[in-house]
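Please describe the entry underneath.
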Amino acid sequence: MREERPISSLPDGIEISTLDERPDLEARARSLDAAFPEFIHHDAVVTRHWERLYTDFAPFQIVVCERGEVVAAGNSVSVYWDGTTKGLPEGLDAALERSMGDAEEYRDPNVVSAILAVVSRENGGRGLSRVVLQGMKAAAAESGLGALIAPVRPTLKHLYPLTPMDRYARWERPDGLPFDPWLRVHRRLGAEILCVAPRSMLITGKISEWEDWTGLRFPESRPYVVPGALSPVSMDVEADSGTYEEPNVWTRHAVG
C-alpha cells in the first residue's frame, strides 16, 4: 500500500478551504456538475436539509481550488456517534437527520460524517476526490472531532446491481486493496470498512417521474435494473409508485 501525501504537501496550485473561510466560493462549489444519475437528486431527506449545510455547517463544506478555479468540493456535517457499528446512522439520510437533530437539541457532535464528494467533469481521474477527503479530515481535526465517517457510494457498484453490497464490498484486487476505486481511495487514506448501510438513501416517486428520470418505461410491477442504480428499483404500477433503497458502505477515518 502506497503512502499518501499529507495535506500539508498538496500538488502545486491546489488549495483546500472551507466555506467558513471562503464564503465567496459557495456559488461556484454548488455549481459543480456532478456525474450522478438524475434520480439521486430526488431524495426527500437530502432535499429537506440541503440548504442548512451552507448556513449551519459551513466549517465542514470543503472547496478545492486549482489556481483560483474551483475543481472539486465536499459536503459533510458534524454528528454524534457512540463509536459502535450498531450506533451508526442507518445511512446518508439518517446521518443528515441526526446531525440536524443534534444541532436543534444541543447534543455535542464528536465526529464528522461525509455526505458528498464531487469533482468537476473535466477534472475527473486526477485524484481530486482524495484531496476532498483530506480536506474533510482536516476540517474534523480543526474542530476537535475524533473521526470522519463516510457512507460510501462505490463507484462501480452500478455495474453489478444484482450483487449484494455486503459481497461487493469484500471484493479485492490481487494486491489486497478493494476492487472498487472509491473504496480503494478511502482505504489508501487509512479508512476501515465498518459495515454495509442497506438503506442509506430512500428515493420514491410516481412511475411517470421514474420514467422521466431514467428514460425507461415500467409497464409492470416488479424490480427493474436501472442505469446508475446500485440495486434494483421496485415498481408498483397499481400504486403508481417506484421505490429505490440505495445501499452504501460505512467507513471510518481516524483524525489527528
